[in-house]
Each structure stands twice: as C-alpha cells, then as structure tokens.
C-alpha cells in the first residue's frame, strides 16, 4: 500500500502513486566492491538512489550494501541481475527489499 499525505491545496486526482521508497539490500558483492560508489551504481539500475548506507570512509559493512531507492512500482521488482564490477568481471548480485512482506522472488510480483 502506498500512502501520500495531501497538502492543503492538493487535489486527490493530481496525486501520482506510481513510485515508492525502499531500502534494498544488495548482496553477493566481493568485499572490495562493498562501497558507497558501487552501491549507488548498482542501486541506480533499480531507480533513483536516495541514500547509500555506508561509513564516512565510503565502506559498507556486513554481508550486503543497503541502498534507499525510489522505485517505479508499476513494474515488477527485480530480484537480482548480472553487473560488471571491474573490466570484464561480471557477477550476479541479489536484491532483498526490506519490509516487503509479500513478494514472489520467482516472478517479481507483489
């Protein structure tokens, strides 16, 4: 469910609810690519990157890189993709959408 708080002079029919904000966990990255830069680069393939959860040095810690992304929810959500990390090195990365309770990782439908 997508909610939108109406402004004082905002008309209900003018509200566009086709985008939503998600925290997305990007996993299966080698440790040297667990950075703010790669998080933003990979996150931008999903939608508009708002924030990458990383330390001041730009490193992400743990098993994934967390990225806040504004995503077009009229399309199926992507559960992973092949990304080029450096040169011709390609790797599959997986996406986990935080707090999304009903989601089919097979077809991408909610």
TrEMBL record:
Tell me which stretches of the chain form a coiled coil.
Answer: none
- Zinc knuckle CX2CX4HX4C domain residues: 71-108
Q: Note the InterPro entries from the entry.
A: At4g02000-like, Zn_knuckle_CX2CX4HX4C
Origin: domain of life: Eukaryota
Question: Which protein is depicted?
Answer: Zinc knuckle CX2CX4HX4C domain-containing protein
């Amino acid at each position: 469910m997508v909610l939108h708080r109406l402004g004082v002079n905002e008309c209900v029919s003018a509200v566009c609810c086709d985008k939503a904000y998600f925290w997305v966990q990007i996993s299966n990255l080698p440790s040297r690519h667990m950075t703010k830069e790669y998080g933003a680069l990979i996150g931008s393939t999903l939608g508009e990157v708002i924030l990458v959860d990383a330390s001041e040095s730009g490193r992400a810690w743990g098993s994934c890189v967390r990225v806040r992304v504004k995503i077009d929810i009229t399309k199926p959500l992507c559960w992973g993709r092949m990304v080029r990390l450096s040169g011709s090195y390609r790797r599959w990365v997986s996406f986990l959408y935080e707090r999304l309770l009903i989601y089919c990782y097979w077809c991408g439908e909610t």
